[in-house]
Amino acid sequence: MRMERLSQDKIRIFLTFDDLSERGIQKEDMWREIPKVHELFSEMMDQAYNELGFDASGPLAVEVFAMPAQGMVVIVTRGKLDRDVESSSEEELEEEVYEMEVTLEQSEAIIYRFRDIEDAIGAAKTLNHHLTEEGRMYRYQNQWVLCFDPAGLETAGYNALIAVLAEYGEATSVTPAVLEEYGQLVIASNAVKVLAEHFA
């Protein structure tokens, strides 16, 4: 389980499928209200407090993104209490602390970000001619992002693609829709081939 702070009131948590299986949780369970999922969330909030000083009191907005082969990305945003605290009873405040709005999204796209263009080129050279020549490249939040449609990939090729991308970059929770709207499209198609051959 890895986490990072995005802002004063927002954190991002990366959960691998191993993290889930160790706790007896299946990917589909994240959509269900069951004790094991609540225990996992409590554990995440404890770790967030210990590592990042993130206090999970107050209403929380929780976004859960299911990423193919990588696991889950959980984004937790701390909201503000809407009503006057002094006019609320302690019991009402206790309920408010654990009020969560959960949003679940599942993306089939394989999306990895790279801090340096050299890392993206390294991944492309490894992938080119062996696994795929496809993909789109974006510039988003000062990082390079490669996006792949897994349709048509066999299981072995799919897993190999993930392995190579994970070696050079890291999975990101950004969705194709966000990249289209807020990112800058750098290479519209065959990004792997273009990167590998242009920077040969």
Automatic annotation (TrEMBL):
Listed InterPro entries: MecA_C_sf (IPR038471), Neg-reg_MecA (IPR008681)
Pfam families: MecA (PF05389)
Signal peptide start-end: none
Entry-linked PANTHER family: ADAPTER PROTEIN MECA, ADAPTER PROTEIN MECA 2
Species this chain originates from: Cohnella xylanilytica
Family membership noted in the UniProt record: Belongs to the MecA family.
Name this polypeptide is given: Genetic competence negative regulator
